[in-house]
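ESCALATION

Customer reports they have been waiting on this structure for their group meeting. Please prioritize. Original submission:
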Amino acid sequence: MSGDVGLWQTRFPDLFRDAYVPYANCRVRYTTEAAPEELVSRLHLVAVTPEGKVVVCRSDQGWRFLPGGTREPGESLDALARRELMEEAGAVLQGEARYFSTHVADSDRERPYRPHLPHPRTYWVYAIADVQVVGAPTNPANGETVVEVLTLPPAAAAEYIREHDPVHADVLRHAEAMGLVRSRKDAPRT
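Update from on-call: job pushed to the front of the queue and completed.
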């Protein structure tokens, strides 16, 4: 993770402002610093198709979001990314996810959200993922029921999810501003 934090704080003040997340009962701070892998509890992906479009999802309850979710016991971040992409977007990861930012979350709960998750400090990580949408989401019984998966240009994708998740909309805009969202044909050769 890299970048001029001062520049990003100026361009995305709402994203970098410390906040309280009522549903998680925690205080969060957004940063481009790397997260300690063992303390990561959640991962959300700016999933990019070969054409440079971003994958967005809509649940049966109408929620719009970037694919991602909570880590299972013993699950690696790579396995978490692959599982969430298939469950929520019917997409397959092409290569490795590239982490670019995180929310540092400090919980006010007495216990962790799930027993295997770090507590009271945990990290909610964001990554860019090159993907191929291969079918319908698998929609496991214990997750959201995704009823629509769209691939949209980055600005349209951010606007689409803003209604229900302005934070993830800004995370997507931040990734685009960092030059991380592009078609594979435009990606630098290594």
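Sent to customer with the following note: The chain is about 25% helix and 35% strand.
Escalation resolved.
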